[in-house]
TrEMBL record:
Any GO molecular function: isomerase activity
Pfam families the UniProt entry points to: PrpF
Keywords: Isomerase
Name of the protein in its database record: 4-oxalomesaconate tautomerase
Residues forming coiled coils: none
Family (UniProt): Belongs to the PrpF family.
Length: 357
């Protein structure tokens, strides 16, 4: 067709995130070569990803790579990649629960999972964390449907509901719910709670850093604050077992504050920009902290125990995590298939190993 490399691609919205979905068989198996392809198609090396299909915000610089399951009991593998277009980096250390919402529909339409009547359950193996997650997708007549009456804050309109179920989410990356061994750590005079449940996070009281926890994302542009938060995050990461967290997007820092109409106010960072909504995996971690004695979240909300809904306020509205015995965390999301075709990688960006293949 031309002098570029054409790669089959589907662009999907999952929850409040968006990005390209690839079959693993359509990308190089070698991680270095794979990451070079992702940086090329997303426009790495530019703040806005101007030479690719990425953008100027982390929520639209996400990639999902789907393939046959590699572990017993799962239907598909899902590898998530956070592309940092500005720095030209690809980080596969975290999971992404919003993109996860689109994995089930994609897998069914790609022929990896057969649809059943009315609803189809897809058991997803998240390669990043090794955890299994169940997604329940609307499939009336054996076909994926995207239209429906479910509404999630941060996305306009309504769509078909997709339920995500996270069993045994604790220790997703570190193997422990409390990676430091304590519900509260003190870093540079600030109390933080380091939690690993679906996503490693560092919780800090908004007031301890001079905020209310109800600010708009644009209000967190102050460079001194960002540097202070990043220093806290890096040290929290070191204590959680991530010695190179400066080059990773985990742990995610979260400002929390007390609320009256919801369980908590939250402001979630990715890790440098404040999320316009809230990450699903981050929400599971925050909700889990609310029922973990001794954490700063638990101290704010008072005694809670599953089964209980945890309602978290974010800049675009609210997100509800339903904690059940098991333990299991359930979240409702929606998804939409936006585009399918081919995306092009530039040959000049490819390692010799790809070009010689």
């Amino acid at each position: 067709m031309n002098d570029q490399i054409a790669i089959p691609c589907v662009v999907m919205r999952g929850g409040t995130s968006r990005g390209p979905f690839f079959l693993a068989s359509d990308l190089p198996a070698d991680p270095r070569a794979r990451d070079a392809v992702l940086l090329s198609v997303m426009g790495g090396g530019h703040d806005l990803g101007i030479d690719g299909i990425g953008g100027g915000n982390a929520v639209i610089n996400k990639v999902a790579i789907i393939g046959p399951a590699s572990v017993p009991g799962a239907d598909v593998d899902y590898l998530f990649a956070q592309v940092r277009v500005r720095e030209g980096l690809v980080d596969t250390s975290p999971n992404c629960g919003n993109m996860l919402a689109a994995v089930g529909p994609f897998a069914i339409e790609a022929g990896l999972v057969p649809a059943t009547a009315d609803r189809t359950q897809v058991r997803i193996h998240n390669v990043n964390t090794g955890k299994l997650i169940d997604a329940t997708v609307s499939t009336p007549g054996g076909k994926v449907t995207y239209e429906g009456n479910a509404r999630i804050d941060g996305v306009p309109g309504t769509a078909a509901p997709i339920e995500l179920s996270f069993p045994n989410a604790a220790g997703a990356r570190t193997g422990r719910l409390l990676p430091t061994g304590r519900p509260v750590d003190r870093i540079a005079g600030i109390e933080v709670s380091c939690i690993d449940a679906a996503m490693p996070v560092m919780l800090v009281r908004a007031a301890d850093l001079g905020w209310t926890g109800r600010e708009a994302p644009s209000e967190f542009a102050d460079s001194d604050f960002r540097a202070r938060l990043e220093n806290l995050r890096i040290e929290a990461g070191r204590r959680m077992g991530f010695p190179n967290s400066a080059a990773m997007v985990i742990p995610k820092p979260v400002l929390i504050s007390s609320a009256t109409e919801v369980t908590l106010n939250t402001r979630y960072f990715m890790p440098h920009d404040c999320h316009s909504a809230l990450a699903v995996t981050g929400a599971v971690a925050i909700a889990t902290a609310c029922v973990t004695p001794g954490t700063i979240a638990a101290e704010m909300v008072g005694p809670l125990a599953p089964p209980v809904p945890i309602t978290l306020a974010h800049p675009s509205g609210q997100l509800v995590v339903r904690l059940e015995a098991g333990p299991v965390a359930r979240v409702q999301r929606t998804a939409r298939r936006i585009f399918q075709g081919h995306v092009f990688a530039r040959r000049a960006h490819m390692p010799h190993s790809i070009l010689a293949a």
